[in-house]
Protein backbone atom coordinates (compact mmCIF):
# COMPACT_ATOMS: atom_id res chain seq x y z
CA UNK A 1 0.00 0.00 0.00
CA UNK A 2 1.33 3.42 -0.93
CA UNK A 3 1.52 5.99 1.84
CA UNK A 4 -0.82 8.29 -0.09
CA UNK A 5 -3.43 5.52 -0.19
CA UNK A 6 -3.54 4.98 3.61
CA UNK A 7 -6.65 5.88 5.57
CA UNK A 8 -4.98 7.57 8.54
CA UNK A 9 -8.03 7.65 10.80
CA UNK A 10 -9.06 4.03 10.24
CA UNK A 11 -5.66 2.35 9.93
CA UNK A 12 -3.41 1.13 12.74
CA UNK A 13 -0.11 2.91 13.20
CA UNK A 14 2.87 1.64 11.27
CA UNK A 15 4.94 -0.80 13.32
CA UNK A 16 8.08 0.71 14.79
CA UNK A 17 11.22 -0.64 13.17
CA UNK A 18 14.35 -1.56 15.02
CA UNK A 19 16.72 1.32 15.60
CA UNK A 20 20.21 1.19 14.18
CA UNK A 21 23.11 -0.06 16.25
CA UNK A 22 22.97 -2.49 19.14
CA UNK A 23 22.27 -2.54 22.86
CA UNK A 24 25.91 -2.02 23.81
CA UNK A 25 26.04 1.19 21.76
CA UNK A 26 22.68 2.28 23.15
CA UNK A 27 23.98 1.95 26.74
CA UNK A 28 27.02 4.04 25.89
CA UNK A 29 24.76 6.77 24.45
CA UNK A 30 22.48 6.59 27.48
CA UNK A 31 25.45 7.08 29.80
CA UNK A 32 26.38 10.22 27.82
CA UNK A 33 22.85 11.56 28.23
CA UNK A 34 21.41 10.53 24.84
CA UNK A 35 18.19 8.66 25.80
CA UNK A 36 16.60 8.43 22.34
CA UNK A 37 17.51 4.83 21.52
CA UNK A 38 17.03 3.82 25.17
CA UNK A 39 13.44 5.04 25.20
CA UNK A 40 12.82 3.50 21.77
CA UNK A 41 13.97 0.10 23.07
CA UNK A 42 11.65 0.37 26.08
CA UNK A 43 8.78 1.24 23.75
CA UNK A 44 9.44 -1.72 21.49
CA UNK A 45 9.76 -4.17 24.39
CA UNK A 46 6.49 -2.86 25.81
CA UNK A 47 4.62 -3.30 22.54
CA UNK A 48 1.95 -6.02 23.11
CA UNK A 49 2.27 -7.03 19.46
CA UNK A 50 6.02 -7.59 19.56
CA UNK A 51 7.08 -10.68 17.62
CA UNK A 52 8.90 -13.67 19.10
CA UNK A 53 11.91 -13.13 16.86
CA UNK A 54 12.27 -9.54 18.07
CA UNK A 55 12.09 -10.64 21.71
CA UNK A 56 14.78 -13.26 21.18
CA UNK A 57 17.09 -10.83 19.41
CA UNK A 58 16.72 -8.16 22.09
CA UNK A 59 17.19 -10.59 24.97
CA UNK A 60 20.32 -12.08 23.42
CA UNK A 61 21.87 -8.64 23.05
CA UNK A 62 20.79 -7.54 26.53
CA UNK A 63 22.26 -10.69 28.04
CA UNK A 64 25.64 -9.85 26.54
CA UNK A 65 25.55 -6.50 28.39
CA UNK A 66 23.92 -7.65 31.61
CA UNK A 67 26.86 -6.61 33.78
CA UNK A 68 26.24 -3.00 32.72
CA UNK A 69 22.57 -3.00 33.74
CA UNK A 70 22.96 -1.37 37.12
CA UNK A 71 20.35 0.32 39.31
CA UNK A 72 20.16 3.31 36.95
CA UNK A 73 18.71 1.02 34.26
CA UNK A 74 15.85 -0.27 36.40
CA UNK A 75 13.19 1.20 34.08
CA UNK A 76 14.48 -0.96 31.24
CA UNK A 77 14.64 -4.01 33.50
CA UNK A 78 11.10 -3.49 34.77
CA UNK A 79 9.91 -3.16 31.17
CA UNK A 80 11.47 -6.55 30.40
CA UNK A 81 9.93 -8.09 33.54
CA UNK A 82 6.50 -6.89 32.38
CA UNK A 83 7.03 -8.53 29.01
CA UNK A 84 4.32 -11.06 28.17
CA UNK A 85 6.57 -14.08 27.75
CA UNK A 86 4.13 -16.66 29.07
CA UNK A 87 2.43 -18.60 26.28
CA UNK A 88 4.99 -17.72 23.63
CA UNK A 89 7.22 -20.14 21.75
CA UNK A 90 9.61 -22.44 23.57
CA UNK A 91 12.53 -20.46 22.10
CA UNK A 92 11.27 -17.27 23.76
CA UNK A 93 10.76 -19.05 27.07
CA UNK A 94 14.25 -20.50 27.06
CA UNK A 95 15.81 -17.18 26.14
CA UNK A 96 13.81 -15.35 28.78
CA UNK A 97 14.87 -17.84 31.47
CA UNK A 98 18.49 -17.49 30.40
CA UNK A 99 18.14 -13.71 30.71
CA UNK A 100 16.69 -13.99 34.21
CA UNK A 101 19.46 -16.33 35.27
CA UNK A 102 22.17 -14.01 33.96
CA UNK A 103 20.49 -10.95 35.45
CA UNK A 104 20.17 -12.17 39.04
CA UNK A 105 23.67 -13.60 38.92
CA UNK A 106 25.24 -10.38 37.73
CA UNK A 107 22.88 -7.89 39.42
CA UNK A 108 21.44 -9.26 42.67
CA UNK A 109 19.66 -5.96 43.22
CA UNK A 110 16.98 -7.23 40.82
CA UNK A 111 16.42 -10.59 42.53
CA UNK A 112 13.28 -9.55 44.42
CA UNK A 113 11.77 -7.93 41.36
CA UNK A 114 12.34 -11.11 39.35
CA UNK A 115 10.82 -13.26 42.09
CA UNK A 116 7.74 -11.05 42.31
CA UNK A 117 7.28 -11.35 38.57
CA UNK A 118 7.43 -15.16 38.73
CA UNK A 119 5.04 -15.37 41.70
CA UNK A 120 2.58 -13.05 39.94
CA UNK A 121 1.96 -15.89 37.48
CA UNK A 122 0.90 -18.35 40.19
CA UNK A 123 -2.78 -17.45 39.72
CA UNK A 124 -4.91 -17.09 36.58
CA UNK A 125 -4.92 -13.70 34.94
CA UNK A 126 -7.67 -11.35 36.02
CA UNK A 127 -10.65 -11.15 33.72
CA UNK A 128 -13.36 -8.50 33.59
CA UNK A 129 -16.98 -9.39 32.99
CA UNK A 130 -19.69 -6.81 32.44
CA UNK A 131 -22.90 -7.56 34.31
CA UNK A 132 -25.84 -5.12 34.18
CA UNK A 133 -23.53 -2.38 33.00
CA UNK A 134 -21.07 -2.96 35.85
CA UNK A 135 -17.59 -4.36 35.34
CA UNK A 136 -17.10 -7.37 37.63
CA UNK A 137 -13.46 -8.35 38.01
CA UNK A 138 -12.08 -11.60 39.30
CA UNK A 139 -9.76 -14.40 38.22
CA UNK A 140 -12.31 -17.21 38.43
CA UNK A 141 -12.08 -18.04 34.75
CA UNK A 142 -12.29 -21.35 32.97
CA UNK A 143 -9.11 -20.91 30.96
CA UNK A 144 -6.95 -23.94 31.60
CA UNK A 145 -3.90 -22.52 29.81
CA UNK A 146 -2.54 -20.83 32.91
CA UNK A 147 -2.86 -23.99 34.96
CA UNK A 148 -1.29 -26.27 32.35
CA UNK A 149 1.71 -24.06 31.68
CA UNK A 150 2.84 -23.55 35.25
CA UNK A 151 5.06 -26.64 35.38
CA UNK A 152 7.28 -25.43 32.55
CA UNK A 153 6.89 -21.69 32.47
CA UNK A 154 6.07 -20.31 35.88
CA UNK A 155 8.22 -22.23 38.28
CA UNK A 156 11.22 -23.19 36.21
CA UNK A 157 12.83 -19.76 36.73
CA UNK A 158 13.02 -20.45 40.45
CA UNK A 159 15.82 -22.92 39.84
CA UNK A 160 17.84 -20.16 38.22
CA UNK A 161 16.87 -17.21 40.38
CA UNK A 162 17.65 -18.55 43.83
CA UNK A 163 21.14 -18.97 45.19
CA UNK A 164 20.81 -21.39 48.09
CA UNK A 165 21.88 -18.82 50.67
CA UNK A 166 19.11 -16.38 49.78
CA UNK A 167 16.15 -18.70 49.22
CA UNK A 168 14.22 -18.24 52.44
CA UNK A 169 15.30 -14.67 53.05
CA UNK A 170 13.93 -13.27 49.79
CA UNK A 171 11.35 -15.72 48.48
CA UNK A 172 9.22 -16.52 51.53
CA UNK A 173 8.08 -12.92 52.22
CA UNK A 174 7.02 -12.62 48.57
CA UNK A 175 5.10 -15.89 48.67
CA UNK A 176 3.32 -14.80 51.84
CA UNK A 177 2.47 -11.33 50.57
CA UNK A 178 1.02 -12.64 47.31
CA UNK A 179 -1.15 -15.36 48.86
CA UNK A 180 -4.72 -14.64 47.67
CA UNK A 181 -7.31 -13.58 50.21
CA UNK A 182 -9.37 -16.51 51.47
CA UNK A 183 -12.46 -14.85 49.97
CA UNK A 184 -11.04 -15.29 46.47
CA UNK A 185 -12.44 -17.95 44.18
CA UNK A 186 -11.56 -21.59 44.73
CA UNK A 187 -9.90 -21.57 41.30
CA UNK A 188 -7.53 -18.77 42.28
CA UNK A 189 -6.64 -20.42 45.58
CA UNK A 190 -6.16 -23.80 43.92
CA UNK A 191 -3.72 -22.45 41.33
CA UNK A 192 -1.70 -20.47 43.87
CA UNK A 193 -1.40 -23.31 46.39
CA UNK A 194 -0.62 -25.82 43.65
CA UNK A 195 2.17 -23.64 42.30
CA UNK A 196 3.38 -22.81 45.80
CA UNK A 197 3.82 -26.50 46.51
CA UNK A 198 5.57 -26.97 43.17
CA UNK A 199 8.19 -24.47 44.34
CA UNK A 200 9.15 -26.86 47.14
CA UNK A 201 9.93 -29.52 44.54
CA UNK A 202 12.61 -27.23 43.11
CA UNK A 203 13.64 -25.80 46.48
CA UNK A 204 13.09 -28.46 49.20
CA UNK A 205 14.76 -26.30 51.84
CA UNK A 206 11.68 -24.07 52.11
CA UNK A 207 9.10 -26.87 52.30
CA UNK A 208 8.50 -26.44 56.00
CA UNK A 209 7.88 -22.70 55.68
CA UNK A 210 5.61 -23.17 52.66
CA UNK A 211 3.52 -25.79 54.45
CA UNK A 212 3.22 -23.47 57.42
CA UNK A 213 1.91 -20.67 55.20
CA UNK A 214 -0.65 -22.90 53.45
CA UNK A 215 -1.92 -24.62 56.59
CA UNK A 216 -2.14 -21.27 58.34
CA UNK A 217 -4.36 -19.98 55.54
CA UNK A 218 -6.54 -23.09 55.65
CA UNK A 219 -6.97 -22.70 59.39
CA UNK A 220 -8.00 -19.10 58.82
CA UNK A 221 -11.02 -20.39 56.89
CA UNK A 222 -12.25 -22.64 59.64
CA UNK A 223 -14.12 -19.93 61.58
CA UNK A 224 -15.88 -21.45 64.57
CA UNK A 225 -18.18 -24.39 65.22
CA UNK A 226 -20.79 -22.56 63.17
CA UNK A 227 -18.60 -23.05 60.10
CA UNK A 228 -18.99 -26.79 60.37
CA UNK A 229 -22.62 -26.90 61.40
CA UNK A 230 -23.78 -24.41 58.78
CA UNK A 231 -21.40 -24.73 55.83
CA UNK A 232 -20.43 -28.40 55.99
CA UNK A 233 -23.03 -30.45 57.81
CA UNK A 234 -25.91 -28.74 56.05
CA UNK A 235 -24.14 -29.14 52.72
CA UNK A 236 -23.36 -32.82 53.28
CA UNK A 237 -27.00 -33.55 54.08
CA UNK A 238 -28.04 -32.44 50.60
CA UNK A 239 -27.73 -35.23 48.02
CA UNK A 240 -25.58 -34.32 45.07
CA UNK A 241 -24.27 -36.16 42.04
CA UNK A 242 -21.23 -33.92 41.87
CA UNK A 243 -18.20 -33.56 44.12
CA UNK A 244 -18.74 -29.81 44.42
CA UNK A 245 -19.64 -28.41 47.82
CA UNK A 246 -22.74 -26.25 47.84
CA UNK A 247 -21.27 -23.43 49.90
CA UNK A 248 -18.30 -21.47 48.47
CA UNK A 249 -16.43 -21.51 51.80
CA UNK A 250 -16.70 -25.30 52.00
CA UNK A 251 -15.78 -25.61 48.32
CA UNK A 252 -12.60 -23.55 48.81
CA UNK A 253 -11.62 -25.69 51.79
CA UNK A 254 -12.32 -28.88 49.83
CA UNK A 255 -10.23 -27.74 46.87
CA UNK A 256 -7.26 -26.80 49.07
CA UNK A 257 -7.38 -30.11 50.92
CA UNK A 258 -7.50 -32.01 47.61
CA UNK A 259 -4.39 -30.15 46.42
CA UNK A 260 -2.57 -30.86 49.68
CA UNK A 261 -3.34 -34.58 49.56
CA UNK A 262 -2.31 -34.86 45.92
CA UNK A 263 0.99 -33.18 46.81
CA UNK A 264 1.57 -35.54 49.75
CA UNK A 265 1.08 -38.57 47.53
CA UNK A 266 3.31 -37.20 44.77
CA UNK A 267 6.12 -36.49 47.22
CA UNK A 268 5.93 -39.84 49.00
CA UNK A 269 5.54 -42.15 46.01
CA UNK A 270 8.00 -42.56 43.16
CA UNK A 271 6.92 -44.86 40.33
CA UNK A 272 4.25 -46.34 42.56
CA UNK A 273 6.61 -47.20 45.43
CA UNK A 274 6.92 -45.41 48.76
CA UNK A 275 10.11 -43.35 48.94
CA UNK A 276 11.24 -43.71 52.56
CA UNK A 277 13.56 -40.71 52.73
CA UNK A 278 11.16 -38.23 51.17
CA UNK A 279 8.24 -39.54 53.24
CA UNK A 280 10.11 -39.22 56.54
CA UNK A 281 11.20 -35.70 55.67
CA UNK A 282 7.67 -34.66 54.77
CA UNK A 283 6.31 -36.12 58.01
CA UNK A 284 8.88 -34.16 60.00
CA UNK A 285 7.84 -30.94 58.28
CA UNK A 286 4.15 -31.63 58.86
CA UNK A 287 4.74 -32.44 62.53
CA UNK A 288 6.57 -29.13 62.96
CA UNK A 289 3.59 -27.30 61.49
CA UNK A 290 1.29 -29.48 63.60
CA UNK A 291 3.05 -28.37 66.79
CA UNK A 292 3.10 -24.73 65.80
CA UNK A 293 -0.36 -24.25 64.25
CA UNK A 294 -2.71 -27.23 64.35
CA UNK A 295 -2.34 -28.48 67.93
CA UNK A 296 -2.76 -25.03 69.54
CA UNK A 297 -5.83 -24.26 67.37
CA UNK A 298 -8.92 -25.37 69.24
CA UNK A 299 -11.52 -27.20 67.16
CA UNK A 300 -9.55 -27.16 63.92
CA UNK A 301 -11.33 -29.02 61.15
CA UNK A 302 -10.09 -31.10 58.24
CA UNK A 303 -6.55 -29.72 57.87
CA UNK A 304 -5.23 -32.29 60.37
CA UNK A 305 -6.30 -34.96 57.91
CA UNK A 306 -3.17 -34.19 55.92
CA UNK A 307 -1.24 -36.08 58.62
CA UNK A 308 -3.97 -38.73 58.86
CA UNK A 309 -3.64 -39.36 55.11
CA UNK A 310 0.16 -39.47 55.19
CA UNK A 311 0.16 -41.91 58.12
CA UNK A 312 -2.00 -44.32 56.14
CA UNK A 313 0.92 -45.05 53.78
CA UNK A 314 2.76 -47.25 56.30
CA UNK A 315 2.26 -48.30 59.91
CA UNK A 316 5.61 -46.88 61.03
CA UNK A 317 4.36 -43.40 60.09
CA UNK A 318 1.23 -43.78 62.21
CA UNK A 319 3.32 -45.06 65.12
CA UNK A 320 5.67 -42.08 64.80
CA UNK A 321 2.69 -39.70 64.96
CA UNK A 322 1.30 -41.49 68.03
CA UNK A 323 4.69 -41.37 69.70
CA UNK A 324 4.88 -37.64 68.98
CA UNK A 325 1.48 -37.09 70.60
CA UNK A 326 2.40 -39.26 73.57
CA UNK A 327 5.55 -37.27 74.30
CA UNK A 328 3.53 -34.06 74.37
CA UNK A 329 0.84 -35.56 76.62
CA UNK A 330 3.19 -36.97 79.26
CA UNK A 331 5.58 -33.98 79.32
CA UNK A 332 5.01 -31.77 82.39
CA UNK A 333 6.92 -28.95 80.68
CA UNK A 334 4.19 -28.59 78.05
CA UNK A 335 1.18 -26.31 78.71
CA UNK A 336 -1.79 -28.28 79.99
CA UNK A 337 -3.98 -27.13 77.12
CA UNK A 338 -1.57 -28.68 74.60
CA UNK A 339 -1.29 -31.89 76.60
CA UNK A 340 -5.08 -32.16 76.63
CA UNK A 341 -5.21 -31.50 72.89
CA UNK A 342 -2.58 -34.20 72.31
CA UNK A 343 -4.71 -36.68 74.25
CA UNK A 344 -7.71 -35.78 72.09
CA UNK A 345 -5.69 -36.33 68.93
CA UNK A 346 -4.34 -39.62 70.23
CA UNK A 347 -7.74 -41.03 71.15
CA UNK A 348 -9.40 -39.81 67.98
CA UNK A 349 -6.62 -41.18 65.77
CA UNK A 350 -6.67 -44.61 67.43
CA UNK A 351 -10.45 -44.76 67.17
CA UNK A 352 -10.88 -43.59 63.59
CA UNK A 353 -7.85 -44.81 61.62
CA UNK A 354 -8.71 -48.17 60.04
CA UNK A 355 -5.10 -48.73 59.08
CA UNK A 356 -3.95 -48.97 62.72
CA UNK A 357 -3.94 -52.66 63.74
CA UNK A 358 -5.26 -53.93 67.08
CA UNK A 359 -1.76 -54.62 68.38
CA UNK A 360 -0.82 -50.96 68.01
CA UNK A 361 -4.13 -49.85 69.55
CA UNK A 362 -3.51 -52.07 72.55
CA UNK A 363 0.08 -50.86 72.90
CA UNK A 364 -1.09 -47.25 72.98
CA UNK A 365 -3.91 -48.00 75.41
CA UNK A 366 -1.42 -49.78 77.67
CA UNK A 367 0.80 -46.74 77.53
CA UNK A 368 -2.03 -44.36 78.41
CA UNK A 369 -3.34 -46.59 81.18
CA UNK A 370 0.11 -46.95 82.74
CA UNK A 371 0.35 -43.17 82.87
CA UNK A 372 -3.20 -42.87 84.27
CA UNK A 373 -2.60 -45.44 87.02
CA UNK A 374 0.72 -43.83 87.85
CA UNK A 375 -1.06 -40.49 88.12
CA UNK A 376 -3.65 -41.97 90.49
CA UNK A 377 -0.86 -43.56 92.56
CA UNK A 378 0.79 -40.19 92.93
CA UNK A 379 -2.34 -38.56 94.29
CA UNK A 380 -3.29 -41.50 96.51
CA UNK A 381 0.15 -41.47 98.12
CA UNK A 382 0.09 -37.72 98.71
CA UNK A 383 -2.45 -38.09 101.48
CA UNK A 384 -4.40 -35.10 100.18
CA UNK A 385 -8.10 -35.24 99.49
CA UNK A 386 -8.40 -35.37 95.70
CA UNK A 387 -11.23 -33.49 94.02
CA UNK A 388 -12.60 -33.15 90.52
CA UNK A 389 -10.64 -30.07 89.42
CA UNK A 390 -10.06 -29.60 85.72
CA UNK A 391 -7.60 -26.77 86.23
CA UNK A 392 -5.33 -29.13 88.17
CA UNK A 393 -5.91 -32.43 86.40
CA UNK A 394 -6.87 -31.51 82.82
CA UNK A 395 -4.34 -33.80 81.08
CA UNK A 396 -5.39 -36.70 83.31
CA UNK A 397 -9.07 -36.30 82.41
CA UNK A 398 -8.26 -35.95 78.71
CA UNK A 399 -6.16 -39.12 78.82
CA UNK A 400 -9.05 -40.97 80.50
CA UNK A 401 -11.48 -39.74 77.87
CA UNK A 402 -9.06 -40.85 75.13
CA UNK A 403 -9.09 -44.37 76.62
CA UNK A 404 -12.88 -44.43 76.87
CA UNK A 405 -13.32 -43.13 73.33
CA UNK A 406 -10.81 -45.58 71.84
CA UNK A 407 -12.44 -48.49 73.62
CA UNK A 408 -15.88 -47.49 72.31
CA UNK A 409 -14.65 -47.75 68.71
CA UNK A 410 -12.14 -50.60 68.96
CA UNK A 411 -13.54 -53.00 71.58
CA UNK A 412 -15.01 -55.32 68.96
CA UNK A 413 -11.68 -55.54 67.15
CA UNK A 414 -10.02 -56.39 70.48
CA UNK A 415 -12.53 -59.15 71.16
CA UNK A 416 -12.63 -60.60 67.64
CA UNK A 417 -10.71 -63.79 66.98
CA UNK A 418 -10.33 -64.84 70.60
CA UNK A 419 -13.11 -63.65 72.90
CA UNK A 420 -11.53 -65.20 76.00
CA UNK A 421 -8.19 -63.45 75.56
CA UNK A 422 -9.93 -60.24 74.58
CA UNK A 423 -12.04 -60.21 77.73
CA UNK A 424 -8.98 -61.04 79.79
CA UNK A 425 -7.21 -58.04 78.27
CA UNK A 426 -10.13 -55.72 79.06
CA UNK A 427 -10.28 -56.95 82.65
CA UNK A 428 -6.54 -56.51 83.11
CA UNK A 429 -6.86 -52.85 82.13
CA UNK A 430 -8.21 -52.27 85.64
CA UNK A 431 -10.69 -49.70 84.39
CA UNK A 432 -12.67 -50.04 87.60
CA UNK A 433 -9.90 -48.31 89.50
CA UNK A 434 -9.89 -45.46 86.98
CA UNK A 435 -13.65 -45.01 87.12
CA UNK A 436 -13.87 -45.23 90.94
CA UNK A 437 -10.89 -43.05 91.80
CA UNK A 438 -11.47 -39.82 93.72
CA UNK A 439 -10.66 -37.73 90.65
CA UNK A 440 -13.91 -39.04 89.12
CA UNK A 441 -13.15 -38.82 85.36
CA UNK A 442 -16.70 -39.77 84.34
CA UNK A 443 -17.92 -36.47 85.76
CA UNK A 444 -16.06 -34.34 83.24
CA UNK A 445 -16.04 -36.53 80.12
CA UNK A 446 -18.48 -35.85 77.31
CA UNK A 447 -21.88 -37.40 78.12
CA UNK A 448 -22.02 -39.34 74.85
CA UNK A 449 -18.62 -40.88 75.57
CA UNK A 450 -19.57 -41.69 79.15
CA UNK A 451 -22.89 -43.27 78.12
CA UNK A 452 -21.45 -45.52 75.44
CA UNK A 453 -18.42 -46.47 77.53
CA UNK A 454 -20.72 -47.45 80.38
CA UNK A 455 -22.91 -49.57 78.10
CA UNK A 456 -19.96 -51.43 76.59
CA UNK A 457 -18.17 -52.11 79.87
CA UNK A 458 -21.43 -53.29 81.45
CA UNK A 459 -22.15 -55.64 78.56
CA UNK A 460 -18.80 -57.36 79.00
CA UNK A 461 -18.84 -57.01 82.80
CA UNK A 462 -15.61 -55.05 82.85
CA UNK A 463 -16.78 -52.20 85.07
CA UNK A 464 -20.17 -50.87 86.21
CA UNK A 465 -20.42 -47.12 85.75
CA UNK A 466 -24.13 -46.35 86.17
CA UNK A 467 -24.10 -45.74 89.93
CA UNK A 468 -21.34 -43.16 89.52
CA UNK A 469 -23.01 -41.57 86.50
CA UNK A 470 -26.30 -41.21 88.37
CA UNK A 471 -24.53 -39.71 91.37
CA UNK A 472 -22.68 -37.26 89.14
CA UNK A 473 -25.93 -36.28 87.45
CA UNK A 474 -27.46 -35.42 90.81
CA UNK A 475 -24.62 -33.07 91.61
CA UNK A 476 -24.63 -29.52 90.29
CA UNK A 477 -22.59 -29.25 87.10
CA UNK A 478 -20.77 -26.02 86.11
CA UNK A 479 -23.19 -23.37 84.92
CA UNK A 480 -22.33 -20.98 82.11
CA UNK A 481 -24.33 -17.87 81.34
CA UNK A 482 -25.87 -17.85 77.89
CA UNK A 483 -24.23 -15.61 75.31
CA UNK A 484 -27.68 -14.76 73.97
CA UNK A 485 -28.14 -12.26 76.78
CA UNK A 486 -30.50 -12.02 79.71
CA UNK A 487 -30.40 -14.15 82.84
CA UNK A 488 -30.66 -17.50 81.09
CA UNK A 489 -28.01 -20.05 82.08
CA UNK A 490 -27.18 -23.37 80.49
CA UNK A 491 -25.48 -26.48 81.76
CA UNK A 492 -21.95 -26.96 80.49
CA UNK A 493 -21.89 -30.54 79.25
CA UNK A 494 -18.30 -30.20 78.06
CA UNK A 495 -16.26 -28.83 80.99
CA UNK A 496 -13.06 -30.14 79.41
CA UNK A 497 -13.81 -28.06 76.31
CA UNK A 498 -12.71 -31.14 74.41
CA UNK A 499 -13.27 -32.23 70.87
CA UNK A 500 -12.12 -35.13 68.73
CA UNK A 501 -10.11 -33.82 65.76
CA UNK A 502 -10.81 -36.81 63.51
CA UNK A 503 -14.58 -36.56 63.66
CA UNK A 504 -16.33 -37.35 60.35
CA UNK A 505 -14.76 -35.80 57.25
CA UNK A 506 -17.47 -33.84 55.44
CA UNK A 507 -15.71 -32.49 52.33
CA UNK A 508 -16.76 -34.33 49.18
CA UNK A 509 -13.84 -34.20 46.76
CA UNK A 510 -10.93 -34.69 49.14
CA UNK A 511 -13.09 -36.97 51.27
CA UNK A 512 -12.90 -39.65 48.59
CA UNK A 513 -9.32 -40.29 49.73
CA UNK A 514 -10.25 -40.43 53.41
CA UNK A 515 -13.36 -42.61 53.19
CA UNK A 516 -11.63 -46.00 52.71
CA UNK A 517 -9.25 -45.22 55.59
CA UNK A 518 -11.88 -44.08 58.06
CA UNK A 519 -13.69 -45.99 60.80
CA UNK A 520 -17.29 -44.78 61.00
CA UNK A 521 -19.35 -45.16 64.13
CA UNK A 522 -21.56 -48.25 64.10
CA UNK A 523 -24.01 -48.47 66.97
CA UNK A 524 -24.11 -52.04 68.36
CA UNK A 525 -27.66 -53.35 68.03
CA UNK A 526 -27.52 -55.06 71.44
CA UNK A 527 -26.06 -52.13 73.36
CA UNK A 528 -28.11 -51.10 76.39
CA UNK A 529 -27.87 -47.36 76.86
CA UNK A 530 -28.78 -45.23 79.81
CA UNK A 531 -32.47 -44.27 80.12
CA UNK A 532 -33.15 -41.18 78.06
CA UNK A 533 -30.10 -41.56 75.83
CA UNK A 534 -30.50 -41.94 72.11
CA UNK A 535 -28.78 -43.86 69.37
CA UNK A 536 -26.69 -41.39 67.47
CA UNK A 537 -25.31 -41.27 64.01
CA UNK A 538 -21.60 -41.30 63.33
CA UNK A 539 -21.17 -37.75 64.55
CA UNK A 540 -22.51 -38.81 67.94
CA UNK A 541 -20.64 -36.02 69.73
CA UNK A 542 -22.83 -33.32 68.20
CA UNK A 543 -25.01 -32.99 71.27
CA UNK A 544 -21.89 -32.32 73.35
CA UNK A 545 -20.55 -29.53 71.18
CA UNK A 546 -20.02 -26.52 73.42
CA UNK A 547 -22.74 -23.96 72.95
CA UNK A 548 -20.92 -21.31 74.98
CA UNK A 549 -17.82 -19.24 74.65
CA UNK A 550 -16.59 -20.10 78.12
CA UNK A 551 -13.35 -22.03 78.16
CA UNK A 552 -12.25 -23.48 81.47
CA UNK A 553 -8.83 -22.18 82.47
CA UNK A 554 -6.10 -24.79 82.64
CA UNK A 555 -2.63 -24.75 84.11
CA UNK A 556 0.22 -27.23 83.69
CA UNK A 557 0.20 -30.14 86.07
CA UNK A 558 3.15 -30.58 88.37
CA UNK A 559 2.97 -34.33 87.91
CA UNK A 560 6.19 -35.71 86.53
CA UNK A 561 6.10 -38.94 84.57
CA UNK A 562 9.13 -41.04 83.76
CA UNK A 563 7.21 -43.39 81.51
CA UNK A 564 8.80 -44.23 78.20
CA UNK A 565 7.30 -45.28 74.88
CA UNK A 566 6.78 -49.00 74.34
CA UNK A 567 8.80 -50.65 71.63
CA UNK A 568 5.83 -50.79 69.28
CA UNK A 569 5.30 -47.03 69.40
CA UNK A 570 8.63 -45.29 69.06
CA UNK A 571 10.87 -43.21 66.84
CA UNK A 572 10.41 -43.29 63.08
CA UNK A 573 12.72 -46.12 62.02
CA UNK A 574 15.39 -45.76 59.41
CA UNK A 575 13.64 -48.36 57.25
CA UNK A 576 9.87 -48.09 57.05
Question: Can you describe this structure?
Answer:
The protein is mostly helical. It has 24 helices and 6 strands. α2 packs parallel to α4 and α19 crosses α22. The chain is elongated and about 100 Å long. One of its GO terms (biological process) is transcription initiation at RNA polymerase I promoter.
Strand order of the largest sheet: 1-2
What general outline do the C-alpha atoms trace? elongated
Q: Radius of gyration from the CA trace?
A: 31 Å
Distance between the termini: 75 Å
Q: What's the total count of β strands?
A: 6
Region (Disordered): 532-576
Family: Belongs to the RRN3 family.
GO biological process, one term: transcription initiation at RNA polymerase I promoter
GO molecular function: RNA polymerase I core binding; RNA polymerase I general transcription initiation factor activity
Provide a compact summary of the structure:
By secondary structure, the protein is mainly alpha-helical. Helix content is 54%, strand content 3%. The protein contains 24 helices and six strands.
Question: Which key terms come to mind for this protein?
Answer:
two-stranded antiparallel ribbon, single chain, 6 strands, mainly alpha, 576 residues, 24 helices
